[in-house]
Specification:
Layout (H helix, E strand, L loop, with lengths): L8 E4 L9 H19 L3 H14 L9 H8 L3 H6 L11 H9 L4 E6 L3 H11 L7 E4 L12 H10 L7 E4 L3 H10 L3 E5 L16 E2 L9
Parallel strand pairs: 1-2, 1-4, 2-3, 4-5, 5-6
Helix pairs in contact: 1-2, 7-8
Length: 219
């Protein structure tokens, strides 16, 4: 699937790629509606409907990922509510073995995530994943300000983290992100077929997909 000698830069997504998407799915679909209902003293079904409508309206935008935006919009401390279920933050199977192997490989390894800095900090505190990277980049960083789904993001990224698209690998569970990267010209693209350990595996797409990082590590 991969010829590692053709790759100089590895961009890795975080949620659903290195970390189990179960934490985020549980938070947004279960924990937040329940706690929002308690805080606002409304039925949980009503809270769930409101949240789904508001969140769906922001899909594909930077606000969709922004802890500060949702804290202001909902008038609750979303960052604090995330800490209430932080025990669910976990690596995907084989992620640490892959990261440890990459740490010894010659490629430059960079985390590129849509996660808000507060979410990133929480997950670093729980997992220590920052030790595996030469650089951590969030789309909320100054000079970026666009989600990875926007092809213009990769142009902005090029200004702060120069890379050769033809010699770059991106691994991401999001098909819209991979489509955006392909539009920009990134050559090596891989998706994750099982981002959430509690959900069914995703069907194959027109991007090469893996369940386990062992599938792309040299034997």
């Amino acid at each position: 699937m991969l010829s590692w000698s053709d790759i100089d830069t590895v961009f890795l997504d975080m949620d659903g790629t290195l970390l189990d998407l179960h934490f985020d799915s549980h938070f947004w679909l279960t924990h937040l509606p329940r706690r929002y209902a308690e805080i606002k003293n409304i039925p949980e079904s009503k809270a769930r409907d409101h949240l789904k409508r508001w969140i769906d309206c922001e899909r594909g935008t930077l606000n969709w990922y922004c802890v500060d935006y949702w804290s202001e919009r909902l008038e609750v401390d979303v960052g604090q509510l995330k800490t209430e279920v932080r025990n669910r933050i976990a690596y995907r199977a084989s992620a640490t073995a892959f990261l440890a192997w990459l740490a010894e490989a010659p490629q430059r390894v960079v985390l590129v995530t849509n996660a808000h800095p507060k979410s990133l900090s929480l997950k670093i505190a729980e997992t220590g994943l920052d030790r595996y990277f030469e650089r951590l980049i969030t789309t909320h960083d100054k000079g970026l300000g666009l989600p990875k789904e926007n092809p213009a993001f990769w142009t902005a990224l090029q200004d702060t983290e120069p890379f050769d698209p033809q010699r770059t690998l991106l691994i991401d569970d999001s098909l819209p992100v991979l489509t955006s990267a392909r539009t920009y010209g990134i050559r090596h693209l891989i998706t994750i077929l099982s981002p959430d350990s509690t959900a069914p595996h995703r069907p194959a797409s027109d991007f090469p997909g893996i369940h386990d990082f062992g599938e792309i590590m040299p034997r």
